[in-house]
Amino acid sequence: MDMSTRMFKEEGWIRKTCKVCGKPFWTLDPDRETCGDPPCDEYEFIGKPGIPKKYTLEEMREKFLSFFERKGHGRVKRYPVLPRWRDDVLLVGASIMDFQPWVISGEADPPANPLTISQPSIRFTDIDNVGITGRHFTIFEMMAHHAFNYPEKPIYWMDETVEYAYEFFTKDLGMKGEDITFKENPWAGGGNAGPAFEVLYRGLEVATLVFMQYKLAPPDADPSQVVEIKGDKYVPMDTRVVDTGYGLERLVWMSQGTPTAYDAVLDYVIDPLKKMAGIEKIDNRILMENSKLAGMFDIEDMGDLRILRETVAKRVEIDVDELTRLIRPYELIYAIADHTKALTFMLSD
After folding, report:
1. Is the pTM of this model over 0.90?
2. Are residues 239 and 119 in the same domain?
3. For residue 87, what are the domain limits?
4. pLDDT score of 13
């Protein structure tokens, strides 16, 4: 699919292939060779915030929702994290799940069209990474804007979605345009699929822009209509949906440049826990270097963790066992803070 949007054409964006992962991406920087996504790039904002102003969760959430209200989107309150309107999933893992399947199928009207929302989402797929990588959570808020393009009732599509993202990041948050990349990477989930951009900034994925236009193919589907995405077969949908996700916690982290995202958004829990547990204070440089390198790993087994420990220990010039002794209590505190928040939302909802 041609993903050369209006903005890319008019403002001189260049389509390149990442020399590390081989994925196509768009950039304003003619000298850039990598897509900006770990492990192709390290975090570049730890200790050097990538947003001029420091934001709290509440401030960043309001900044986002207000921006899209100004662009004609209706603000929608968050849905419960337990999706009582569905019988196929136990937890809401993304804002689009609030509207699957009834709104997307056209059987129910959306609460606004287009709309904007900040939806608490819970996922356990990355639970082994929580506390270690600095960026993974079991609960996070997905800020989003959605447009439901029904037959004969188009709202907007790829051109506007990319332009909204770039305007919000550069004009409202003050990010540097030459450091933003749009990486092409198809998306699939919940029985739907479509082309997508991952928006990356200084080594961190800050948003995903999905253009949902396919549904799972029935057994008797016309072969000429079938496309394959990530191993599954799909056919075109009648309704085309703009499905975006902006990482609230990640953007707050970007604005603060703390060693981990947990320090930026869960400090009110982490600091008391460290005091109560008597956690030894360690050099901030160790935490920062650990976070920079951990961001390039997905911890799936103890072998991965051992490689990470050895890499960090070499960089900060201390013994691996000493590094583990110092940093493991921090990782556990981070995980406890995250898991407690997830349980609180699940029980309260």
Report:
1. yes
2. yes
3. 6-254
4. 98
